[in-house]
Amino acid sequence: MTIIVASLFLPYTPQFEADVTNSDTAKLVESSMIKMDCNNQELSNNKQERSSSVTSASSHYIGLPQEPQINGEALPRATTGSPATGVNYHNEMEMLSSEQFLEELTANATHAANSGIPQSGNQVSSASTAQRPSVEEFFSVPCARVCTPTQETSASSVSSSHALSSHHNDLSSNFIKSGNLSFDSHPSRARSSSKSAVITPVSKSVPGVDPAVVDVAKVREEFQQQASLPSMKRVSGGTAGDCSTASTGSNLKYSEQFHDNFIEDTDSEDDIDSDLETDATKKYNVPKFGGYSNNAKLRASLMRNSYELFKHLPWTIVDSDKGNGSLKNAVNIAVAEKTVKEPVSWIGTMGIPTDELPHEVCHKISKKLEQDFNSYPVVTDDITFKGAYKNYAKQILWPTLHYQIPDNPNSKAFEDHSWDYYRKVNQKFADRIVAVYKPGDTIWIHDYHLMLVPKMVREKIPKAKIGFFLHVSFPSSEVFRCLANREKILEGIIGANFVGFQTKEYKRHFLQTCNRLLAADVSNDEVKYHCNIVSVMYAPIGIDYFHLESQLRNNAVVEWRQLIKERWHNKKLIVCRDQFDRIRGLQKKMLAYERFLIENPEYIEKVVLIQICIGKSSDPEYERQIMVVVDRINSLSSNISISQPVVFLHQELDFAQYLALNCEADAFLVNALREGMNLTCHEFIVSSFEKNAPLLLSEFTGSSSVLKEGAILVNPWDISHVAQSIKRSLEMTPEEKRRRWKKLFKSIIEHDSDNWITTCSEYINSAWESNQETSTVFNLAPEKFCADYKASKKHLFIFKISEPPTSRMLSLLSELSSNNIVYVLSSFTKNTFESLYNGVLNIGLIAENGAYVRVNGSWYNIVEELDWMEEVAKIFDEKVERLPGSYYKIADSMIRFHTENAEDQDRVPTVIGEAITHINTLFDDKDIHAYVHKDIVFVQQTGLALAAVEFLTKFYNSGVNTTDNSRISLSRTSSSMTVRNNKKHSQNRVDFVCISGSTSPIIEPLFKLVKQEVEKNNLKFGYTILYGSSRSTYAKEHINGVNELFTILHDLTAA
């Protein structure tokens, strides 16, 4: 048996390597048609990287080039506009509007230092600066040299909008890629020579389609034709070996290198793995006056060359830095430590575009992954993948799941278009899982990218063991209902046996959403929908303490800690690490920190907040807003060259640097507006073993449910409260720090990755076993049924019949009740029941789903609670007003809400869901439950049918005769129906029970009761007969319909 783990990206990816001195490769580089990742430092001297804000003003945000500095001294700006010797920056200044200029000017007018050039009286000597390295020197060190930071020489640092780096390394294999990556440090990817470069195929752009104004079919056909042609990633124009500036694709059909004037454009993704490629700054050189005509033959030749290039390039399989790092870490550690004894197979995409790969190469890569890495790649065309992931998952699902509802007027057309891509990718995953699956395997599907897969797999493998885990937050039903395809997504998820969430809150939201949008019946940990029973639980993911603790002892971490202590001697460090997006609350965090410093000016020279932002930003306006606040904060310092209150690093750090910062931090601040499980908190807690620094944690994160006992919970929307909490954390006594840290550490140990894997595996297995138990239904064997009937002495029949009986049914029931105990169960009232079955002698009736039982002509009350009915009636009054045509009926013990005549049938599921949620929440502690069956909402005391059957069993097994009912404690009333004494009231115990009906929340507990009584040997023969749907029920026998049942009963009485 194998555990099949399905995630969007595989843990491994193919890596192609090319010789950058090759002439063919050089042509592709010069034509900006390939994406290259250079290995040679000499080839990348001019590589532009996103800078960190290490001074109060950054030209990247105010539109002005900033004077470069070496060792703290400003370099003179060349009057001609060309850069100073040895310094490379743009000689083209971005235009700045008057409004922007005034805003920036007033924002940074507090001190002269915020221009980025210290006053002459405040400058520091180069020797002094060399002893205390700059921030860039700390956080721009090549990974190859990170193990010996004490050997670093003081390089010149440039504080500009795009920091200039003297090195280039494989960032994706050495830097932390996401907040969920946890402590996974990927090994460096070896290359064969210093002149080699990693070559990556490039996917085509997704067509922008607005179905309201274009012929969608025609556009799709055109792009399908285009998809058959190869495409390559654009890189910066230059020499063949120059990888200094990575570029992305353009709408231009040519890229010319020979003109001085150019148009500069920047396009970056919203997060680090938001596409198959990582985009950076790109330049498009546009020829003057229309330039040269496009040489189609040359372009076609280059495309053919690119195709041949990947056909002959050597490739290797390396660790992938994309995808869910916490999942990969948890699974790999569990396998290594034998926590998971079964073999694990992975299913996912390869992490690179595949359209450019020749078929034979793609086939060889797939075989290599399957045979050596237990990984089965899902291969889809690049446009479909990008449409599913970048468009639907990232721009529709991700914001909605985090309470950021897309409000673009064109989003509906965009959502409909991208939904097709999303569905196709999910179907590809399902098909791949079905192909790999073997009987007995466990299928474990992960995250919001694959929400449709469980149902798709279930349709092909009905008895498969399937689990689904959502790693991000799940919103309330009011937010989730904004998705156009909400029902399809929910139905896709509950195709699994088990659905897992990070927190109890997310689980509750999911249950309520299923209840309100699908009108599914839910309990505390189950969803019952279309005869399926789905287990819904929460299990927070964690990290492995022992694995991380061993990395903290690494020499590189120890040396980096020493350098950090020297760099910020006698300073309090507040460390933050977030993805760069609005959901993380970066601006509000800076505003709160600014408020803290303004209210407590004595801390301006004593505290440094280090904000690490990872991932790329596609929101320059938000980036500008943040930097305006950062500049204001830094302007509070009297000498920014010595004391800088905020260090804003928009770049990835080496893992050793990140751990060292955590170890030396005096506080860790997470201010997310909405987030799932943030494992950076867990890593900080382990790293703070010596200092026991406090954790300030947003109450809107999933981590707060696990760490609330020891963390300082903050409301990110309350700027003043966050500012006060920052001061509290910095002034906390050592005793309180230690006490809080112990609680946090205990939570980390209890909710580690090992426990998460074990818990989820148990949930999946138990949910599947429960479903197997309830779905084991066999067709009724009439011969055995008759034989068991004859072999027993006292028989009890209970028929659940919801419709008025036919004459044939009345005749057979009359005949059967002459020698047996026969009861009919229904939701009819007592008076209606008696009028329908008045012609049947000696028949027993169970009215209103078990509230009242008629025994020997007397009605007994099973129901106890009735005072709730008036309040429920008021709720339905409101629903009737909102849904014209609907109505409700009040019986003696229940209320039924009917919507079959409602004028707006599209609103019926929503109204029903709201009513059920309202009633079940209001009466949760009073055993009053609302549920829907056959489009009718029933509200009644729970467990009445089960109590009625238990009462009848006790009654007929107690030896009570027909005239002495003193031993029955229930109240009773008289009945107008005739009773005739017969031999069914013998002193024998009931040894044959038959309960039949269509599946419903009323009869399923009765099926389960009979099964348990047989297993305990309290009952000799027990038959639970289901007609209709045979899925997910406790019934053991099945027939096609009620007519077939009464045909068997006819044969039974005639025998």
From TrEMBL:
One of its GO terms (biological process) is trehalose biosynthetic process. Keywords: Cytoplasm, Phosphoprotein. Residues 42-59 have a biased composition (Polar residues). Residues 42-80, 184-204 are annotated as: Disordered. GO terms for cellular component: alpha,alpha-trehalose-phosphate synthase complex (UDP-forming); cytosol. Its main location: cytoplasm. One of its GO terms (molecular function) is alpha,alpha-trehalose-phosphate synthase (UDP-forming) activity. Pfam families: Glyco_transf_20, Trehalose_PPase. Residues 184-196 have a biased composition (Low complexity). It is found in: Cytoplasm. The keyword Transmembrane helix does not apply. Coiled coil: none annotated. In the N-terminal section; belongs to the glycosyltransferase 20 family. PANTHER family: TREHALOSE SYNTHASE COMPLEX REGULATORY SUBUNIT TPS3-RELATED (PTHR10788:SF15), TREHALOSE-6-PHOSPHATE SYNTHASE (PTHR10788). This is Tps3p. The lineage of its organism: Eukaryota, Fungi, Dikarya, Ascomycota, Saccharomycotina.
